[in-house]
Amino acid sequence: MAVRLPELRLGRRRGPGIPRSGEARREERAAYLFLLPWLAGLVFFLAVPLAWSVWISLTDERLLKAGEFIGTANYERIFTADPSFSHSLGVTIRWIVFTTPLFMAAGLGLALLLNQRLPGMNIFRTLLYIPAVLSGVAVTILWAVLLNGEVGAVNTILRDLGISDPPQWFQEEAWALPAVAIMGLWGVGGGAVIFLAGLQNIPPHLYEAAQLDGAGPVARFRHITLPMLSPTLFFLLISAVIDALLIIGPLIVLAGRAGGGGPGDSLLFYMLYLYRMGFVRGELGYAAALAWILTIVGVVLVYLTFRLERRFVFYETE
Q: How far apart are the first and last CA of the chain?
């Protein structure tokens, strides 16, 4: 007995010469209407300020004083007559090179610990994540007290351990940058939570198969965990580089609103120098030029990082 299958009626695709129906045009108008607030915000809060900042960078604009067009004089001054520019850029690059691997390794190690099935682990995860959501100003003040060279708790412990002359941290040129890095380790819980989500998305049967084949913990971490976690590593790497370029809040708390750069300008990060020139000295045109150079540097760094994606990032669907 033959079974008659129901007929399927497939709608024809609208060709280039076939006019759209009235309903399709109404849906399109409704879609653009709902997109209009977002498009207006994109123009007025992003495109217009960007274009205006380009113009300001070509003028001698100052606070409470309209500027005049001076061409590329601000950029020429940056590259030929401003040693603080190269110094602040060098401090920022050193910060990226020094802290990005440190923070990512600390976050990954913490995530591996949090991924263990131990009693009370949920409470432990919550406690470790709390510092990541605290105010940056409050955390900076806390660490400024802890790392105080004379009465800070850290140096008190070091003296009790037999170190008679501990570092002065924020008051000492050689230790100021490491002190900020130690302060930054306080917030690695945020990255650890993202690492933890990536770890829990790795299929357990991969570890089981590797263990049956005789792979040890190091081999499983190298050949399973790292490749499967590479998209998460890549995402956090991009975020870490951008955050390192834009760090400024803790520095203003440590250096003061005058835009000081710490002992020997050891904490004169690029964003802090930009703040000093724009809002302390009032040279808005010069600060806009500095901002555009930072934008170009950031774009180049992110581009180079994306070039590495094809070689080191593994996606499960590939």
A: 46
Ordered by start, the domain boundaries in the chain are: 83-312
Say if domain 83-312 classifies as CATH 1.10.3720.10: yes
Cβ atoms of residues 204 and 193 within 8 Å: no
Residue type (1 letter), 297: V
The Cα 282–Cα 56 span in angstroms is 13
What percent of the residues of the chain are helix, what percent strand, and what percent coil, each to the nearest 5? 70, 0, 30
Contact 305, 238 (CB under 8 A): yes
CB 244 within 8 A of CB 305: no
Q: Give the alpha-carbon dihedral of 72, 74, 75, 81, to 10 degrees.
A: 130
Nearest of 227, 246, 244, 234 to residue 305 by alpha carbon = 234
Query: Cα–Cα distance between 316 and 145 in angstroms, integer?
Result: 47
Q: What is d(CA 138, CA 141) in angstroms, rounded to the nearest whole number?
A: 5
Q: What is the mean pLDDT of residues 72-93?
A: 94
- Residue-wise burial string across 237-268, b where 16 or more C-beta atoms lie within 10 A, e elsewhere: beebbebbbebbebbbbbbeeebbbbeebbbb
- Which residue in the block uniquely carries the two structure tokens 């108008």? 29
Q: Per-residue pLDDT tens for 188-216?
A: 888 898 999 999 988 888 888 988 888 88
Please, are residues 180 and 267 in contact by the beta-carbon 8 Å criterion? yes
Lowest mean pLDDT among 49-63, 67-81, 243-257: 243-257
Q: What is the DSSP letter of 186?
A: T
How is residue 295 written in tokens?
């934008």
Tokens matching residue 9: 């009626």
Nearest CA to 291 among 239, 248, 238, 236?
A: 248
Region of 183 (left: φ > 0; alpha: ψ -120 to 50; beta: rest) is: alpha
Which tokens belong to 260? 């000081």
